[in-house]
Amino acid sequence: MSNIADLIEEYILRRLAEQQTGQVELRRTDIADEISCAPSQISYVLNTRFTHDKGFTVESRRGLGGFIRIVRVPLQNIIYEEMVDKIDTDTDFEEVKAMVRYLIQHQLISSREGGLVIQAANCAFNGMKEADRVKMLKALFITLAEFS
Known about the structure:
The protein is mainly alpha-helical. 61% of the residues lie in helices and 11% in strands.
């Protein structure tokens, strides 16, 4: 028999799968009634199994008229966000190349796009101030994410 957290997760995933939009809006009381559990158990599942790292965004409002909105975030968006967050003045050219190789290997960009990014990064490392280089590199990865 599954534990209560598994049942709550399965219920939420099933409801999410029923939606074409990749998001679902639920009420804690409805879930609690359906599964016969406490609302705190639902909160636990949301906090541990529906995290940003696992590809979800959760918005929650408690009280009368409260709701839980769960949105499935494409994994590629998370990858790009993490890469953009890693870029700072300490980031070197080899790290940027490794990021580009990762994107190519996982077919998030083509090798042609990767080559263009590497050439742009090379120019940035050979002539731009650190702050400007960071802005440009972040803009490159944000643009890749937008067009993926």
